[in-house]
Protein 1
Amino acid sequence: MADRRSRARRVGVLGLQGDVSEHTAVLAGLGAEPVVVRRPADVAGLKALVLPGGESTTMSFLLASSGLDAELEKMVADGLPMLGTCAGMILLSTKVLDGRPDQRCFGAIDVRVRRNGFGRQVRSFETDLEVKGLDEPMHAVFIRAPVVEETGPAVEVLAEVEVPGQPGTRRPVVCASGPVIVSSFHPELEGDSRLHELLLREVEGD
């Protein structure tokens, strides 16, 4: 029974670069079957996909060179549940405002983002976020994190944060639209599984 339930929650983790092992550990702890996705054949039977933090331009290049860009396009078109953290959010966005001309984004969620929008490594910060739908605050660490500058009408903002050094200026840092959830930070590095739990609820709701 446990094995059948695990396979019913077969969740891919894009394994080209970034926080792959951290996401697979969180998913396994929730009883899902994590699958590291490095080539097109790895996507067979997936019920959801996690795009981890890392370096978004490198990940964009590796998606193209591995042939996974076409598979990701198809999964987005099919409405597969997805979770994108940090660089993963950039890849799932509709537009990267300061990206390279050849940088891909896949339009899974209607947000426009700015890379390193909170500043470089020295501007990293931590805070406790009130996230809509969660009972307790989520501790968030922002490391060279992207900023959501604009959201489309179908996007629900689940959490915002005040931009350091800009009192009164708040930006979305957790957003959802349909079966897609994105965050500017890395919940997997804090061992907080609650965004992954929201993803698995989307899987079970199919």
Note: The chain has a mean pLDDT of 89.
Protein 2
Amino acid sequence: MSATHEFIIINTLTTRRPTLLPVRAQDPNPLLPSVRHFLDALRTEKGLAHNTCLAYGNDAGQFAAMLQQRGLCAWPAVTPDHILDFLEQRRAAKCAASTIFRELIALRMLFRFLHAQGLVPADASERLEAPKLWKLLPDVLAEEDVERLLAAPKVTTRLGRRDKAMLELLYASGLRVSELVGLRAQDVDLESGFLRCTGKGSKERLVPVGSHARAAIQAYLAQRAAGAGSAPLFVSNRGRAMSRINFWKRIRGYGKACGIVKALYPHILRHSFATHLLTHGADLRVVQELLGHADISTTQIYTHVDDQRLRAVHNRFHPRA
């Protein structure tokens, strides 16, 4: 592939939406070719997942853009302070703590690569400790809002039945959106009420599918042309696999249509799935397994309770409430 057709993801420091810029030999940012080689190494040597490579490339690209804004055009001139300044800018831009932690990991991997290639005399990230993650509660929809959202698609249309099935399944299973759009027809067993999905790290897990989601999927499949078991379960208007961006636009549109003020995105249904399960008494380790979390500390963030439930518990059990 020629250099004019190779791309790297770059962001501004104040937005989360990536922009694709061509990487050329005469690119005005002389740091970018090294970032491109770093991405090639991630794909070929580390064997990282496609989405992980995109995220790390985006992080490294943003860092290179910040360095260029400061007049730095060579990697050996980068110091640990530059990395800390970048992370602080990301925090000031109100990025999630988990995002900033991932960006630090990406920059550590970048500088290890640069040092191994002899492009820098020392690893500027070597002595940096991971910042203590400040706790941010996940966005969660109230159960009434979830019901309104799930009822928003018009099931009298083909696309409405597809969207209804996707929304119901997302809330019923707590899947990541990449797992949802990656499902194949053979991955869902409606008779047994289970689906098999591949999550982070290529780990497979079995997830139960609720009765409402099964009914919605059956209604969707009844009007969809039958395909091979390896075919995508959810397809676009053109018969291709649904993309994450397409589904994100659809869910945002349904949120506006049914009057939900909170900004919607697919992961909010995953957050709501976990929170509502725990609110109704589910065991934390069961929720961990359903979500596919490797560490239970990741699941524990969902153990927060809303003010009304906190007050109700206090009023019920405190002797002087």
Note: The chain is about 50% helix and 5% strand.
Protein 3
Amino acid sequence: MDENTNLTEKKRDLFSRVFEWAELFALYFAIGMIIILACFRHSPVEGSSMYPTLNENDVLIVSRLYFTPKCGDIIICQSPVYGLERPLVKRVIAVAGQTVEIDYDNWTVTVDGTVLDESYINRESGRGMLRSDYLEDTFTVPQGCVFVMGDNRNHSNDSRFSEIGMIDERYILGKVCVKIYPIGDFSFF
């Protein structure tokens, strides 16, 4: 009888330990998910404006933690004029106080007198870059705003156009950190 009692106690002790570990795992998992959801979000790419860097239906992880936008960052943003329900994926070209000059015929963008190295853009040979609907080709970025463009310049609605305009930093939803889908094309930004 002592042997049966001892065996029952061991089973009860093992079950208790497994249950404690499961509770601990569930607690840490829940805390981790809360942190991830508070700091990050996922966002699918809609459209071809960021081709060849990003393709339609790519899924991105976006950091919602405070960051200061800088030239070259890929961000998710909104434009009140375009519609707040439609997030945009764009590349930051210039920040507050900087001057952007665009040479549409030669596909060059100059920021504060320096031509950007934009090997990532989709140039269409034999065609110039899609022209702005503003009258000028030079833009000075106001305080609290960024100038954004898509990498697929002839198929991107961006700061060159009045429908989007300069993006107020308050409408930046986050910085793209990782492309997670398609899985074979996983990459960090």
Note: The chain has a mean pLDDT of 85.
Protein 4
Amino acid sequence: MATVNGGLAEYALAPQAEVRRIPDAMTFAEAAGFRINYLTALHGLVDRAALQPGETVVVFGAAGGLGAAGVQVAKLLGARVVAVASSDEKRAFCQGLGADEVLDTEPDGWRDRLRAACGGVAPDVVFDPVCGPLFEPAFRSLHWRGRHLVLGFTGGPIPSLRVNLPLMKGAGLIGVDVRQFLQLEEQRGQAHLAQLLSWVDEGRLQPPVGRAFPLEAFAKALEFALSGTGLGKTVVEIADLESADL
């Protein structure tokens, strides 16, 4: 597992300090989409949201690579998780990841359904890699001192939020940028990665593998990954490393 420049290549160079041995329990396909997604989730939930055991986390895009990481990491941190996804197949996938409740993305009546999914109370944290049409309804639904994590904008045009809403809710709109985190807080980032890999090694965390494509079909893999129809992280198989003599 390493940080490299470039991709979709049979060989790549990486600084020795950036290379980590993957646990015996982890496959190469699982490792391929692991580092950034799971570091982002752990950094966001621990460092930015200060998530506490027993709090409720709403995860948008929960069947995608980053959303799935959010579901699994939040559960490992002792949270109750409501996974938001757009289809029955995706919601079933989220239940398999450990989500306590699942919720659709139909805007009409969504806040009422969210409150019901949260057991009649407001959620504490929103984990949002989508920032789509439900961005403002989700923020409005937060508990006092709630935290809405902004992790990406896969939902289309970047939304805006009137600044009186954070004041009235006593809530925070918080950005999560793992790239700068790893640059500016390198030691903490390495500690987070060690924690994540220990969970894998202990059998407490198993990253889901999405659809896999051979290297020669990389264009189709990119199209599929951008379609929003997949489950988990789409993988391009560079070579049959599982059976290679390494």
Note: The first helix runs from residue 28 to 32.
